[in-house]
Amino acid sequence: MTYRLYHMQSSGNCWKPRVALHQLGHAFELIDIDIMTGQSRTDEYIAMNPNGRVPLLQLPDGRYLAESNAMLAYLADGTDLMPSDRYDRGVVFQWMFFEQYSHEPYIAVARYWRHLEGKEPPEAVPGQIEERGYAALGVMEQRLNEATFFAGDTYSIADIALYAYTHVAHEGGFSLEAYPNIRAWLQRVAATPRFVDMDWRP
Description:
This protein has a four-stranded mixed beta sheet, with helices on one face. By secondary structure, the protein is of the alpha+beta class. It is globular. The protein has helices at about 10-25, 45-50, 70-75, 85-115, 130-145, 155-165, 180-190; strands at about 5, 30, 55-60, 65. Strand 1, helix 1 and strand 2 form a beta-alpha-beta unit. Helix 1 (about 10-25) packs parallel to helix 3 (about 70-75) and helix 1 packs antiparallel against helix 6. Helices cover about 50% and strands about 10% of the residues. One of its GO terms (molecular function) is glutathione transferase activity. Keywords: Transferase. Its EC number is 2.5.1.18.
C-alpha cells in the first residue's frame, strides 16, 4: 500500500502534504473530499478523522494522521526537508506554529470566505482580518530580509507551510506589492526540485 491522501484540491492545507509527498518521491493516491457538500462529515469519514476535516493522510501501514503540519513533520523526518541540527529544527517548528497561529487564521480564512464562498467573513470584526494578516506578512518580510528561507539557508517544511496560503493571499484580498522579500521567496520556493503548484495532480 502507498500513501493515501484525503484532500480537497483547492485547499492550501491539502497542498502542503501533496507537494511534500511529491518532492520526497513518494507514491501516493488522492481521494477527493468535498467539504462544501459535507463529505468530510459522513460517518465513514469521521471514523477515520473524528475532527471531520481535510487533509487526512493514510500511511502505508494503514494508520491515519491528521493536521497538515503534523503530516509535514512526519514526512520530513530524516530528509533534507528537516534540518539535522536540534536548534534549526526548533526554528522550523517556530515558523510552522507561527503559520497556524498568526498567519492561517487571517490570510487563509479571508481566502476561504472571499474566494471560495464569495462572501465577506461573517465573524470578522471590521478590519481585524486585514490588520492581523498584514501584521503576519510584515513579520515574514522582516525574517526574509535576513534569511533565504524561513529556517535559514535551506528550504524546509517551514517554507511549504507558509507558501501554501501566502502565494494565494491575493485571493483573500491581501496585496504583496509592499513585500519584495516575500515575493522573491515565493519564486525561490517555486524553483525547488520537483515543486508542484496547487492545481497539480499525480
